[in-house]
Write a structure and sequence with these properties.
The protein has about 375 residues and is an alpha+beta fold. It folds into 2 domains: about 300 residues, no CATH class; about 25 residues. About 20% of the residues lie in helices and about 40% in strands. Strands 4, 5, 6, 9, 10, 11, 12, 13, 14, 15, 16 and 17 form a 12-stranded mixed β-sheet that branches. Strands 1-2-3 form a 3-stranded antiparallel β-sheet, with no helix packed on it. The protein binds zinc ion (2 copies). One zinc ion binds next to loops.
Amino acid sequence: MATSEPAVQQQAELKKSCVNCGAELTYKPGTSSITCAYCGHQEEIMVDPNGFEELELSPYLKEMGAQSHSEKISMLHCKNCGANQHIEENYKSLHCVYCSMPLIVEDMYIEDWILPGAVLPFQIDQKQSFQTFKRWVSGLWWAPNNLKKASLDPQFTKGLYLPFWTFDAQLRANYTGQRGIYYYETQSYKDSKGNYRTRRVRKTRWYPASGKVSGFVDDTLIKASQQKAGRIPKDIARWDLKKLQPFNSSFLRGFITEKYTIPLQEGHLESKEEARRIADRWCRQDIGGDTQRVNSIDMKLSEETFKHILLPVYVSSYRYNGKEYNFFVNGETGAVSGSRPYSFWKIFFAVLLVLIVVGIAIYFGQQAEG
Ligand SMILES: [Zn+2]
Ligand SMILES: [Zn+2]
């Protein structure tokens, strides 16, 4: 559980450029290798199956910044939208993944990050994701021409690894509450016509209850990026965490990685809220009966560990009237979701046309009557 040497060391041996043609090797989605886009040369990414790095939480909560399990990475900060992005390979020009504003390579700076303990490698490739975006746009009514243009240029669709924290803990809780049992009473009443009638009414009898629950809380997933991950629609933000691989930076090659902006401490507080909801659920199950009241829960978490993990999405970005819009494809499942602008002028002229047609119809209608 505690940290040993980082599992990422082994990746240093992998060549970063193609032995045949010198082009950069990038991770090929759905595989476990990096490949050359030009000649097809492949190198296998070796991951240690036992290399998942669950880190003991408490030392990291106390002294952030001075841990053994952190590393320096190069970061580019978008001055327009604030996103922090990292790219493994060399590049000459680059646009922000979210707002498609140009990023200045000279602005790159080096900073620390807690190394990811695991990564869920892309399963869907850029081409598939771009095709999905294109299909989505072509099915839209009233889409502005800018959007149509963006859907023709694959460089506006990029693969992005999003940062998350996951927490594990042993949960123990003592609770007090009440068990409710339903019973039915027959009541008589007078109906609107003045006749006496009877009806059955459900009531609840309450009994005191108290006890203990305990169990393991596994992989509570908390977003680690304030600016952008928060905007990613909930319906596509679901990944199969069983597909996580021990971290190896070769999986990041050819993709953009966003650095966490929500500190571990903040993520941990949020995970405790989630643990409290889980404890409440367990207490209610333990109380049983037909319905329950929970009066108090005394919860304790122990053996707390965490991981910094990276999860894949594709982002298509386009600008309209000075505003950024994003279309998202889940890089594992292919689930899609996007926000879209409406073209004012397209709608304006359509409404105008309808009014003219209606006007003409009324005019001729009146002529016919007169
Ligand atoms: Zn090659
Ligand atoms: Zn940006």
